[in-house]
Amino acid sequence: MIEGAPTPRAQWQKSLIVEIVDRTPSIKSFFLRLSAPFTHQAGQHVDVRLTAPDGYVAMRSYSIASAPSSTGILELAIERLPTGEVSPFFHDVAQVGDEIELRGPLGGHFIWPGDASGPVLLIGAGSGVAPLAAMVRYRRTSGQRVPTALLMSARTRRDTLFGDELVAAEESTSGFSFALALTREPATRGSDFSRRIDAAMIGDVVARLPSLPEIVFVCGSNTFVNVAVDGALTAGIDAAAIKTERYGA
């Protein structure tokens, strides 16, 4: 779930849940077929609206995890928040074949730089990895070669959203590096870390790029984003190059 105001041209439409995939113990991917397909930009999001039988309406925003395409199917990686109104419905009630109202694509600030010539740094945690995964997927499918590094924080390997896919992308995609910071179990790869993200870690990942990042995307909880931004500034990155997206309370 992220912050962001809808654009006037985004219209509500029906979408159909065509597949549900367990990603981590607390995150599921929901694949939605749009009734009015659109092509989004990597990093954008949609609003989802649920209406109860008594007319009560709950609405949340979710990043699109899938790469831009013309298939008319979107992937939303939704984390179950125990105190939430919308995520428990998706995790506990929603089934393949259900109709969901949504509007989008939304957001023009936190999007992959199509004209980037310098390195890109991505930093995320939890479901905040979803828009960053969309960027990595788009970079790969579009054949872009801009050097890119992704630093992800997770409690354990089981909590790593798209972890296997990202490791495979690092092994098969030129110019992409992936580093995982595990906070509750030891890292098993030499390129990963066994602690919370800090300034020294961000400096280490930045050093894996050929030069300072031209742009940095940070997505996660408010506290996580603050720590990551401070670390990026300590690493010498210009504040104007850092874009953030915050989710949750």
Topology overview:
Elements: E1 12-22, E2 27-34, E3 45-51, E4 57-63, E5 73-79, H1 87-92, E6 99-106, E7 120-125, H2 130-141, E8 148-154, H3 163-172, E9 176-182, H4 199-206, E10 215-220, H5 222-234, E11 242-246
Q: What are the secondary-structure elements, in order, as H or E?
A: EEEEEHEEHEHEHEHE
For this structure, what is the CATH class of the largest domain? Alpha Beta
What name does CATH use for the topology of the largest domain?
A: Rossmann fold
State the CATH architecture of the largest domain.
3-Layer(aba) Sandwich
Spatial order of the strands forming the largest sheet: 4-3-6-1-2-5
Structural class: alpha/beta
- Shape estimate: globular
Largest sheet descriptor: 6 strands, antiparallel
Tally of structural domains: 2
Average pLDDT taken over every residue: 93
Q: Number of helical segments? A: 5
Residue ranges: pLDDT <50 for 5 or more in a row?
Answer: 1-8
Helix content: 10-25%
Give the N-to-C terminal Cα separation: 10 Å
Strand proportion, as a percent range, falls in 25-35%
Cα radius of gyration in angstroms: 18 Å
User: Number of DSSP strands?
Assistant: 11
**CATH superfamily (homologous) name of the largest domain:** Nucleotide-binding domain of ferredoxin-NADP reductase (FNR) module
